[in-house]
């Protein structure tokens, strides 16, 4: 039982979380493992309905 508790405790100590990095950083500026997050609303300009039309052909993309 003591060994089981020791193994569980060391597994919790050795865990590490991802680092949250803003999207405006260069590719080589962030450590591994990292999570790129849109902290400055860079991607909001792409949200909406996008429509391409060429004659009778239509292509509609909806980004939420």
Automatic annotation (TrEMBL):
DUF6705 domain location is 1-63
Q: Which domain of life is it from?
A: Bacteria
Record protein name field: DUF6705 domain-containing protein
Pfam families given for it? DUF6705
Which PROSITE patterns does this chain map to?
PROKAR_LIPOPROTEIN
Species per Swiss-Prot/TrEMBL record: Chryseobacterium ginsengisoli
Annotated InterPro entries = DUF6705
Please provide the record's keywords in A-Z order: Signal
Signal peptide residues on this chain, from the entry's feature table: 1-17
């Amino acid at each position: 039982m003591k060994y089981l508790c020791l193994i569980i405790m060391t597994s919790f100590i050795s865990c590490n979380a991802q680092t949250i990095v803003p999207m405006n950083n260069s590719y080589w500026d962030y450590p591994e493992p990292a999570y790129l997050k849109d902290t400055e609303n860079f991607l909001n300009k792409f949200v909406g309905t996008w429509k391409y039309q060429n004659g009778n052909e239509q292509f509609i993309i909806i980004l939420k």
